[in-house]
């Protein structure tokens, strides 16, 4: 359902739409079922093609972060646009889930 690659034991999930109430549950379920439950709990979300994230989407990322941590992993963001960066900063989520300027930086932070 979602495009992903694996680099140095870290999964990179490329999202290509807003992360909102309409799709956040599907994203969460897919990540948990297809990655975390299969032992792939170090995950970078490539946000290059994500125009916006709503509050429901933020909550989904927090939930995924907690699930990944409890499985010995973590999540990070890469390439968030300025609007998404502002939202992460305003909610202080950027203190919990780091955003990196490139996918490689994010992968290196988790490997």
From TrEMBL:
**Any idea where the STAS domain is?**
1-110
Give the Gene3D superfamilies listed for this entry.
Answer: STAS domain (3.30.750.24)
What domain of life does the native source organism fall in? Bacteria
GO molecular function terms listed in the Swiss-Prot or TrEMBL record: anti-sigma factor antagonist activity
Can you tell me which family this protein belongs to? Belongs to the anti-sigma-factor antagonist family.
Q: What is this protein called?
A: Anti-sigma factor antagonist
């Amino acid at each position: 359902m979602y495009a992903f690659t694996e680099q140095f034991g870290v999964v990179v999930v490329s999202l290509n739409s807003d992360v909102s109430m309409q799709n956040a549950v599907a994203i969460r379920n897919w990540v948990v079922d297809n990655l975390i439950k299969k032992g792939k709990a170090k995950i970078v979300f490539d946000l290059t093609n994500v125009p916006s994230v709503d509050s429901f989407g933020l909550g989904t990322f927090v939930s995924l972060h907690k699930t990944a941590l409890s499985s010995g992993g973590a999540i990070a963001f890469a390439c968030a646009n300025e609007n998404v960066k502002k939202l992460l900063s305003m909610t202080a989520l950027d203190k919990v889930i780091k955003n990196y300027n490139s996918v490689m930086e994010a992968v290196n932070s988790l490997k």
